[in-house]
Design brief:
By secondary structure, the protein is mainly alpha-helical. The protein is built from 3 helices and 2 strands. Helix 2 (57-71) runs parallel beside helix 3 (90-99). Belongs to the RuvB family.
Length: 101
Amino acid sequence: MVSSNIVTDLKANISTTPVQSTIQTLERIGAHSHVRGLGLDERLEPRDSAQGMVGQHAARKAAGMIVKIVQNAKIAGRAVLMAGPPGTGKTAIAMGVYGRH
């Protein structure tokens, strides 16, 4: 009987409160999430700072030329190889090319 009384006492002291869900969708933020394009004008000239890209003028212009050549069906390839030491902007350029669509 003692255990029965304990269970009854526990049930009497338990209350429930409805909880509204506050789950939100979050945008993933990464090292290059600010890059939206190559920052080139219509003549493929790089702007000093545009679409999240700063500097790397020659690399941005070269990437823009490759994009334009592929868009005009002058070449068809599956990949472009970018090489260089760490921290030189390869990933940022790739994100900029991806952002041009």
